[in-house]
Amino acid sequence: MVSAYQSELSNSSTSFLELETDVLVIGGGPSATWAAWNAAAQGARVVLVDKGYCGTSGATAPSGTGVWYVPPDPQQREAAMASREALGGFLSERSWMERVLDQTYTNLNKLSDWGYPFPVDDEGNPHRRSLQQAHDYMRLMRKKITKAGVKILDHSPALELLVDAQGSVAGAKGIRRQTGERWTVRAGAVVIATGGCAFLSKALGCNVLTGDGYLMAAEAGAEMSGMEFSNAYALSPAFSSVTKGAYYRWATFYYEDGTEIEGAGSQKGRSIIARILLTQPVYACLDKATPEIQAMLRTVQHNFLLPFYRMGIDPFTQRFPVTLRLEGTVRGTGGIRIVDETCATTVKGLYAAGDAATRELICGGFTGGGSHNAAWATSSGYWAGEAAAIYAQKLGTKANQRSVRGLGEAAISTSNTSRRSFNPSEVIKGVQAEVFPYDRNMFRTEKGLTESLGRLDDLWKEIRNSEAVSEEQAVQAREATAMVATARWMYASALERKETRGMHKHLDYPEQDPNQYHRLVSGGLDQVWVKPQKLKNAIKDRELVTL
Ligand SMILES: Cc1cc2nc3c(=O)[nH]c(=O)nc-3n(C[C@H](O)[C@H](O)[C@H](O)COP(=O)(O)OP(=O)(O)OC[C@H]3O[C@@H](n4cnc5c(N)ncnc54)[C@H](O)[C@@H]3O)c2cc1C
């Protein structure tokens, strides 16, 4: 066990908390907790800051996940790797898939040793592809990191990174939401594990996922990758936030008059549903579930059925209205570009893990149903935590003696009262108006993307010429800023990919183009840029699989 800090200065009269540590982990979901655990296991002092309460915040905690857990049997592994390559537009890499499969296998077995209650079949064999008891999973992770000496600051979103004179990342600053106290953590290295960006669409667990990590990383000069693959939409009852899709396997979809919608489905027929939703409501009923299946479904994912119970609807016999909620990069694949196997970014001292990092390496341009993301979260967190600890330990005691400065500019409060203020809620509505509509983001066109990007650029200029309205709005203002930045990388990349590949459907270019068999790297804040990048271990282009 390591002692947590060199020093902790808390001064309640100035409401300011200062900490020093080796590794600062920003986030509190599976990727953050695995990063924190492994950094501490290397002997590093670790601080973890979470916007919510670590163990309940983020996409995993309330959802539960299937995991890409495949025993090390060559045939099973080959089948697992081959299964999604075409869907992802062949932008994944086998070497990354192999190491994620290996690490996930090890980590989930470790979870079992730690006491996670994996379900067992009739023969008593554990079913390790399921982390559906995610509250148990995350509670266990919190317990493990606390025991390992990690200092956790709950309800303490990071607002900006700190860098030293050379531009290496050296910590972060943020706010403690429950007290209003400001915090500064000086660190040898930082892991960004802030999840993806779902643009506050009310999808389950996504209320805290506003792309903050992308913004902070980009301010430090980090690059994004695959931001065109950021338009994941998930089915949910129109009256609830539960975007879990498994049960719709037993659904029939209907028009308002009760006529069945041919070809509609949760996986393959989602576009059909989206097209109809553009003009009229769509209903579903889980009427394909036999009484035996219904009995099973009533016990497997309790949170799926809860909103129905509350509404007094029996989803197995009664039709209910559905909608498609944007989950952005949470179940998309874009994120911060990582440059090597340690999950380092292009910026020294900065690592990225989980949904904050690009998942193209294992999924290409599409994640499909669950499992890869959860595997990536545990594996990338594990590697990023380890590497950040080694990096920080090499810096030694010099690390926290560096002179540092905060990097945040847009929507960071200053005392410059001559600057105009902006209304974060209005900006958020403005972004949502560009990214939610199916006929803009799911079915993309050159015209629609260009127009949206123009309006998003205007929103960015408005933010840049303003400052956060008040101290109380500091967090929301940065969230609004992060969402605008994310949407701009997303649409700038989508405009550059003049083809249809992975989840990026371009109506003007409906085919996959072998000449665009590359990744798209993007970045920049005032000036957004996008450039192609060759795949390191490219495989031959194959035929497009239509979703
Ligand atoms: C309904 C649903 C079902 C899903 N099912 C599956 C599945 O079956 N299989 C699968 O593989 N994947 C699934 N996913 C995706 C999976 O949940 C995510 O890939 C996974 O949660 C990513 O983990 P993470 O730690 O990177 O991010 P999250 O779990 O989203 O955690 C992000 C954390 O960062 C914190 N944070 C955000 N901003 C800040 C900030 N500024 N400062 C400090 N902290 C911050 C948040 O509070 C949160 O604790 C599902 C997602 C949803 C929404």
Helices, by number, come to 15
Task: List low-confidence stretches.
Answer: 1-14, 541-547
Which sheet architecture does the biggest sheet show?
Answer: 9 strands, mixed
Strand content: 15-25%
The hetero compounds bound to this protein are:
flavin-adenine dinucleotide
| Rough outline | globular
Structural class: alpha+beta
* Range of helix content: 25-40%
Q: What is the averaged pLDDT score?
A: 92
* Beginning-to-end CA distance, first to last residue: 49 Å
Please count the beta strands (DSSP E, at least 2 residues each): 21
If you compute it from the alpha carbons, what radius of gyration comes out, rounded to the nearest whole angstrom? 23 Å
Verbal overview:
Helix content is 33%, strand content 17%. The chain has 547 residues and is α+β, with helices and mostly antiparallel strands. Strands 1, 2, 3, 6, 7, 8, 9, 16 and 17 form a nine-stranded mixed sheet that branches. It has a four-stranded antiparallel sheet with strand order 15-10-20-21. Strands 11-14-13-12 form a four-stranded antiparallel sheet, with helices on one face. Helix 1 (30-41) packs parallel to helix 5, helix 6 crosses helix 15 (474-496) and helix 12 (424-435) runs antiparallel to helix 14 (446-464). Residues 26-32, 49-52, 57-60, 63, 65-66, 157-158, 193-195, 203-206, 208-209, 212, 243-244, 327, 330-331, 354-356, 370-374, 377 line the site of flavin-adenine dinucleotide.
